[in-house]
Each structure stands twice: as C-alpha cells, then as structure tokens.
Amino acid sequence: SWCCCFLAPLGTLLASSSLDNLLVLTVATKETEGFRRFKRSAQFFNYKIQALGLGEDWNVEKGTSAGGGQKVRLLKKALEKHADKEDLVILFTDSYDVLFASGPRELLKKFRQARSQVVFSAEELIYPDRRLEAKYPVVSDGKRFLGSGGFIGYAPNLSKLVAEWEGQDSDSDQLFYTKIFLDPEKREQINITLDHRCRIFQNLDGALDEVVLKFEMGHVRARNLAYDTLPVLIHGNGPTKLQLNYLGNYIPRFWTFETGCTVCDEGLRSLKGIGDEALPTVLVGMFIEQPTPFVSLFFQRLLQLHYPRKHMRLFIHNHEQHHKAQVEEFLAEHGSEYQSVKLVGPEVRMANADARNMGADLCRQDRSCTYYFSVDADVALTEPNSLRLLIQQNKNVIAPLMTRHGRLWSNFWGALSADGYYARSEDYVDIVQGRRIGVWNVPYISNIYLIKGSALRGELQSPDLFHHSKLDPDMAFCANVRQQDVFMFLTNRHTLGHLLSLDSYRTTHLHNDLWEVFSNPEDWKEKYIHQNYTKALAGKLVETPCPDVYWFPIFTEAACDELVEEMEHFGQWSLGDNKVGTLMPGLGPQGGHLSISIGFEREWHKFLLEYIAPMTEKLYPGYYTRAQFDLAFVVRYKPDEQPSLMPHHDASTFTINIALNRVGVDYEGGGCRFLRYNCSIRAPRKGWTLMHPGRLTHYHEGLPTTRGTRYIAVSFVDP
Ligand SMILES: *[C@@H]1O[C@H](CO)[C@@H](O)[C@H](O)[C@H]1NC(C)=O
Ligand SMILES: *[C@@H]1O[C@H](CO)[C@@H](O)[C@H](O)[C@H]1NC(C)=O
Ligand SMILES: *[C@@H]1O[C@H](CO)[C@@H](O)[C@H](O)[C@H]1NC(C)=O
Ligand SMILES: *[C@@H]1O[C@H](CO)[C@@H](O)[C@H](O)[C@H]1NC(C)=O
C-alpha cells in the first residue's frame, strides 16, 4: 500500500480573510519538473498561485547569463488589473528552482514584520554588475545585495516598481530592480527593503554552508544557521540546483522517522485493472559490456518478469565474445516470444556509449515505445514485478536502488562533488540501508533505469545522450539529463534486486560461475543450490534409505551439469596419490581430485561449510563439523573403464556422495550398498546427496554401472 504523506495540508486549517489577500505570481513558460515541484509545494501549504507565460517561448538562450526581462514584462502586464488593490499582497517568485518551506500565514506575518511595502530577497553575491557594489547601503548583519528571484509587496507599490519597465525580454531583470533599489529616492518612495537575514527568502547560491535540514516532531524545515531563521522560500539559484533537489526530497513533506515515510506520491500511475493487453510497450535495453558472472540467471530473470512478452522489445548489446553463446542460446530459445529483438554482438565492436545511444534511440524513434528500460548485465533483477512497480511511479527517469551484497556500494550518488564526481550525501547510508524509504531526486543513477519514451522524444531528444565531454557513458548520461533539467529519481520503496560484484570474475574455466561462491554468494546459491534445500534444512524432504544414511536435495541441474562438464573439460582423470590407493582400495584411476585438478578447493570448502555443515549438525545432533577435507573428487563409472568400487571404509567421519547425473537416462546400474545393513540405494537422484558415517559401521561398495557413464561427487569430511 502506498504510504500517504499529504496528510492535512497545514494551510487548510488556517484559511482566513487575510490569507485571501495573498496572490503568488510566477513566470513559467514550460511545465518543467521543477515547476511541478514548485506547484506541489504550493498546494501543500494552500497557496493560490498563478503562472504567467505558460506556453510562451522563453526569449533567452539557455545558459546565457543575462535575461529575465521577460519576467518583468509579464509581471507588469499582470499587475495592471491589481494596481489599485491596496490590501492585496503579491509574492513574485521564480518557480523552476524554488520551493515553499512554510505556509501563507507565516509568510504574511514575516512580511508585515519587515515594515516595508516591498521586500526583496537578499544575496551574498552581487550580480550582474559588480561595479554597483559601492552604491549599496552597508548592512551590519546579513546579506547585502538584491536578488530578483523572489520579492513580496503590496500590489500598488509593485505596480509602481515595474511601471517604468521598457526593456527587452533579454535584458536583466535583476539589474533593472537593482537600479531602482540603488536610487535612494525611489527606494524610499516605493518603500523597498531587502530580506537581509533570510527570514522569508533563502537564496542558496553562496549560502550552502548556512543552510541545514532540521528534523523536529515529524516535520522538516530548512534552517539558516548564520541568522537563526527559518526561511519560507528556498531558491536553488545559480549552481545550486542539485542542492535544491536534495532539500526537495524532504521539504515540504511531512516526515516521521517512525514510519520512515518520505514519499508524497503524486500522479502514481495505476496499472490495476489494466489488462495485460493494454499494458504499455517497453523496450528493454540489455548491456553486457564486460565479462560478467551469471549471465544465464540474467536472462532467466528477464523471462520471470511479470510482464507480457508481446509488449516487450529487446535490444541487446553484448560486447563480450565470452558470452556470445549464452546470448545466442537465449535468443534462439525465447527471442520469438518478444515483440522484436535486436542484437549487437561482439563482432560489431560497438563502443559502450554508442550502443547505449542506439538502444535509447530505438525507443525514441518508435512512437509506440512508451518506456525504455535499460538494464546492465551486472544487475540481478530478482523481483518479478519490477517493471510494473517502476512504471507505477510515473517518473520521466527512475532507477530502483541496487546495492552489492552487504555493502554500501550502490547504483546512485546522493550528491556530486564540485568537479562532478561522487560525493556522499548526508542521507546516503540511510537510503542504502533502508532507514529512510522513499522516492529520491538524485544527481546520478546507473546500471538500471526506466525512461519514459515521451521524455526521450522531448527533453532528452539528443541522440547522443551517452557522450559528454570526456566522461564515461554512465556519468555522461546523468550530466546530460541534469543539463536538461530532467529529474532522476531513485526509489528504495521496494527491493527489486541487487548488483553483482565483478571484481574477481575470471574467465579461465569452462563454467566460471562455479567459482563465484565468495564474490556473489546469493547468485551462486540461486544458480547451484537445489530449490528444495531450504525445506531439507527445515527437516522436510530428508529421507533415510538405510540406517544412518541421509538423503536430501543439494544441487541444481546446473550445478551437476557444470561440474561434470568442468571435469571432462579438464580431462585428466587420474589415479590420485598413494594415500588414496591404500585407503580406498578399488578406487582405480577414475577419481579426479578437485583439489589437485581444477583448483576448486576453497570454493568446495565454502560450499561444505555453508550448505553441508548445517545439515550435519541437524542430522547428527551434537556433532559439529569444520567441514575439513583432504579428499573431494568426482568419480566416473563406465562399464569398460571402471564400473564399480569394491567394499571399503571411507577415511572420513562422514561422507557426502552427490549424484551428478540421471539413472535410466545417462546410465544404467550403479548405486551404493551398505554391507552391514544389506541395504542398497539403487536409484540415486540427480542433485541429491547421500550423507553417511565413514568408518566402522558404513562399510560400503559402489554397485556396477552397466551402461553409459555415471558421475558422483564425493567428499570425505573431517578425516
Ligand atoms: C508604497 O508605499 C508607501 C509607504 O512607504 C506609500 O506611501 C505609497 O503610496 C505606496 N504606493 C505606491 C504606489 O508607491
Ligand atoms: C518604509 O516605510 C516605513 C513606514 O511606513 C518606514 O519606517 C521605512 O523606513 C520605510 N523604508 C524605506 C526603505 O523607505
Ligand atoms: C521441490 O519439492 C516439491 C514438493 O515438495 C516438488 O513438487 C518440486 O518439484 C521440488 N523441486 C525440485 C526442483 O525438485
Ligand atoms: C540381502 O537382501 C537381499 C534382498 O534385498 C536378499 O536377497 C539377500 O539374501 C540379503 N543378503 C543377506 C546376506 O542377508
């Protein structure tokens, strides 16, 4: 269920006639996300706002420093009909980079306390003409210079203020107001003062060190520490847009640590009641840019997504020869189930950024592409509802939080350093660890994100989204999105998966995933440990085919197959050392020692510790194993090579014996007989292990394999 934070807007309780005499005017030529944020914050506190200029062209080149004259022209026009309203207070403010931190009552109170007819926001930095500094009145405390991003005043006085405007749209509004303010006569006549101590207006440029978030009694305010004030409007002017985005994650929302709820979901997209047929088309872009473990699981998870494949298109960039077979196998098996498929393989030698541009552009150029879902191969997307959950958030760009197993490493940054690289925000750890839950406006996301097709055809229409100066593609993408003033959101409301660790992945073996038990234990378990192992651990499904011989599921098909293939690939079936000969008469030349041969000793020990030891302790109460072993090997039985094993004791406290292939399919015969009990297990199950004591009581033999080849993995534990 959605947590709801828009409880009672505080303003509704305070409506009074004086509040009706307040009007908020702003200029917004486009409904940017910043503008929508401004409107939401205004609605939260019950401000009446009127936007001027919507739909008009913004008559200044983006990025040029001058401009703003258009705002004065529009204000002058709007004030014509209010010029005589002596009681009407008008707040004029920017909106793309502004939000309200408090309601109209507090605003009006502070305005009246200022004892001036017109109050302008104040700035630390003088702009745009530094030569005017000497003309500014000196202030003993507070900010000295006028900022035109926000001012408040009585309608007649404001009309007077803008009456003499005759400039161009591209002229500086700030310079215009500054010149009036610096003319002592006009200043007095119109009665203008500045909000030196940020009681009403907080411009963040030059003041970042002064502003902190105060969490108190379920509310959040931005506090100015320098003047000990609680500003009503926060303005992320100049280069402080990102800091405003950060504050906007908290302000003006109702926040309690108890519920951990910071989300005020506006415009959630409901998919309930939408039949599968009506779900929007999603282009899934998949990127294998480096050797990556568990690519087979990556595709399996794609198949498990709870979303109709006929509404999904696939774009795959595989940069790695190493994964070519896996990708092609997946497409051969399932490609036709999707609406369309495009593969760019390693032979094309396409660069990362170019491939990402190509994927995004496939969606952009196709009007029926409603979403572009970009997922890198090192993302383990384990939640089948992922796509639906992300679509529901209804954002232009949104990423689910993904972290590396048990680490602070994640796919987002909470802040940017001055040079545009990683910086840790104050809330980073709390978000990663789920102590603060919500949908967060952040400056950097990577690995997995959903972009609206409409955004790709709108603000993000540049076909080269993944290049930006010399930045890597991930950073280039974020820099370009930020530049277009599109917000990037991160949600940690649901756990949708995790990131793989690629650090120690090697491609020297046939099945390299087997070696990933340390780096990516969750995925290793998912791929290799039998689905019913957990049940066995809970005491279900464990069978006792012979006295003190336990039998339970441990390996998946993949584990069995890969282990056998790995051994055959290695190809050196050996006698082993003398010790084997003496202790296990009859073993013969077919025992391939994992420790000697394929370099799997550490991993095998980890497996025994993680998955066998807990079973041992359960089934043989009072016995604690450290899962030590000298011998662990795969035995190959063939009628014409070595069909059976003579009766013997094992050099172990207990032995595990895992069947790696299927009787009746891969071989006939085989099995294990315990002589003392005259008890045989004749139909070993693939992926199941026998576990029995090694010495004394469990003298046993390997029954003859009569056709095909039989493989078992054996370990003598605690010799
Ligand atoms: C503005 O404020 C002053 C008070 O200082 C007042 O005398 C004046 O008439 C007001 N109106 C205009 C249009 O300036
Ligand atoms: C504005 O008017 C008030 C009286 O209404 C006066 O006390 C104050 O000094 C005036 N301020 C300016 C800047 O003229
Ligand atoms: C797991 O056990 C259930 C019955 O408890 C069975 O239906 C299912 O096939 C088993 N899974 C596998 C992979 O053998
Ligand atoms: C062992 O059991 C089999 C039947 O399972 C039986 O035919 C045989 O006689 C038994 N052998 C001994 C020595 O008890």
UniProtKB/TrEMBL annotation:
Reaction equation(s) it catalyzes: L-lysyl-[collagen] + 2-oxoglutarate + O2 = (5R)-5-hydroxy-L-lysyl-[collagen] + succinate + CO2
Single GO MF descriptor: iron ion binding
Localization per Swiss-Prot or TrEMBL: Rough endoplasmic reticulum membrane
Any single Pfam family the record assigns to this protein: OGFOD2-like
Cofactor: L-ascorbate; Fe(2+)
Domain of life of the organism encoding this protein: Eukaryota
GO biological process: epidermis development; response to hypoxia
PANTHER family reported for this sequence: PROCOLLAGEN-LYSINE,2-OXOGLUTARATE 5-DIOXYGENASE 1, PROCOLLAGEN-LYSINE,2-OXOGLUTARATE 5-DIOXYGENASE/GLYCOSYLTRANSFERASE 25 FAMILY MEMBER
Function statement: Part of a complex composed of PLOD1, P3H3 and P3H4 that catalyzes hydroxylation of lysine residues in collagen alpha chains and is required for normal assembly and cross-linkling of collagen fibrils. Forms hydroxylysine residues in -Xaa-Lys-Gly- sequences in collagens. These hydroxylysines serve as sites of attachment for carbohydrate units and are essential for the stability of the intermolecular collagen cross-links.
Complexes and interactors: Homodimer. Identified in a complex with P3H3 and P3H4.
Annotated protein name in UniProt: Procollagen-lysine,2-oxoglutarate 5-dioxygenase 1
Organism for this UniProt entry: Cercocebus atys
